[in-house]
Structures are given as structure tokens and as C-alpha cells.
Design brief:
The chain has one helix spanning 2-11; strands spanning 14-21, 25-30, 33-38, 49-56, 62-66, 76-79, 81-84, 87-94, 105-113, 118-125, 128-131, 136-139, 141-150. The chain is mostly beta strands.
Length: 155
């Protein structure tokens, strides 16, 4: 009975990450070339932003993002998909208000552990360019990259 309890506890372990991301960048494509350009966004400093992610594994695998300012609308608790050992991905969604869309918001978040106790994080929100005069929209690619430290471990 004790072994079963220990196995269940181990199977649903949680790891907390303290994360910081750079200001989001737009991917601009011209023919076969691509460049990244910084975006100036309300609520996201040019130096980036800080938040926390708690990842729980096991039967109810989830990521809980705690970001009080939440300008990119990724705060909340979301089901995760394991993508490799020490790697998860999840879709964060919100009713808004949104930075890159007009109605609901959605971002793909990828978190990948590194051997030194850190992790890499990439947030890729769904994004639209809007021409209000022409009442038209086009999708575009936004990427926010950053680093995390597992709580309790030094960088």
C-alpha cells in the first residue's frame, strides 16, 4: 500500500519554473528570406517579461501559468502533451482581450528542460494583421523566446 502511494506521488510530480521571455518578434518573409523584427507591445517591456510555470506530470498532466500582468493571455491551467523527455507543449487560450487577434486568443507554448537545471521556452501566439479600412486580415508569425530556471536550482 505504501509503495502504491509512493508510485502515485512520483507519477504526478510537479516542477515549478521561473521564466522570462524576450519581447515578442514578428517573422517577416520576403521570397525565400526571413527576418525577425521586435514588436513594441503594451504590457510587454522591451526587456521582456517574467512569469511562473508549474508543470504536473502523470494522469492529469497540466501546466499552470502564473503571470499577473498576462499581456499575452497565457495565464491559466492547461493540459500538456509530452513531446520528449523533459519537454512539454500546451495550447493556452483565453477570451481576451488579445494582443494579436480580435476575438479569442490562443498560443502554443513549448517548454524544454536543459541538463543544467534551466529550460528553454517559446510562446507562439495566433496572430493577425488587420486592415480596418479594407476590412481584411492576414495571419502572421509571432515568436517570444526565453529561459526558465527550475525553482530551487541556481542558473
Amino acid at each position: 500500500m505504501i509503495l502504491t502511494a509512493l508510485a502515485l506521488t512520483a507519477a504526478s510530480a510537479a516542477i515549478t519554473y521561473d521564466c522570462s521571455i524576450e519581447a515578442p518578434k514578428a517573422l517577416n518573409r520576403t521570397g525565400e528570406n526571413a527576418t525577425l523584427s521586435s514588436l513594441t507591445l503594451q504590457g510587454v517591456a522591451a526587456t521582456g517579461a517574467k512569469f511562473q510555470v508549474k508543470v504536473t506530470s502523470g494522469e492529469k498532466a497540466a501546466a499552470e501559468v502564473v503571470w499577473p500582468e498576462n499581456p499575452m493571455q497565457i495565464a491559466g491551467k492547461f493540459a500538456t502533451l509530452p513531446t520528449a523527455k523533459g519537454s512539454v507543449a500546451f495550447s493556452a487560450y483565453s477570451a481576451g482581450p488579445c494582443l494579436f487577434t480580435e476575438q479569442m486568443c490562443m498560443s502554443l507554448v513549448q517548454l524544454v528542460d536543459q541538463p543544467d537545471g534551466t529550460a528553454k521556452i517559446i510562446v507562439t501566439p495566433s496572430a493577425l494583421w488587420t486592415d480596418k479600412k479594407a476590412d481584411s486580415r492576414e495571419p502572421f508569425i509571432v515568436i517570444a523566446e526565453g529561459n526558465c530556471t527550475r525553482a530551487g536550482k541556481s542558473k
